[in-house]
Specification:
By secondary structure, this protein is mainly α. It folds into two domains: about 30 residues; about 60 residues, no CATH class. The chain contains six helices and no strands. Helix 5 runs antiparallel to helix 6.
């Protein structure tokens, strides 16, 4: 890739980042969003977290091994579900999940 092509790619990346991250801040400053849109936007972080977790839980190749270590994500997910239901805190869910997963890997 030549320097000219690199400059084009870098410039287009900068424009894309500006258009998707900075411009909405200026356009929506001082305005309130409709309640349905605000509720939909509030669902994005839990949905992204669930997608990341589901990717590890439903690994088909792990179940073919028939080893108990294939079920480590499922075993670690149980305490996380309890913490999620009691605290509704993403931070405590992450801390619990990482702690349980690490402890199970050391076992």
């Amino acid at each position: 890739m030549s320097w000219g092509q690199f400059a084009w790619v870098a410039g287009l990346c900068a424009v894309t980042i500006f258009a998707s991250r900075v411009a909405p801040l200026f356009l929506l400053k001082g305005r309130s969003l409709p309640p349905r849109l605000a509720a939909a936007l509030d669902a994005i972080p839990p949905a992204a977290f669930a997608a990341l977790v589901a990717n590890d839980l439903f690994d088909v190749g792990a179940f073919r091994a028939a080893d108990w270590r294939a079920f480590i994500p499922w075993i670690a997910a149980a305490p996380v579900a309890v913490v999620a239901l009691r605290t509704r805190s993403l931070l405590w869910c992450i801390v619990t999940g990482v702690g349980c997963y690490g402890a199970l890997l050391l076992a």
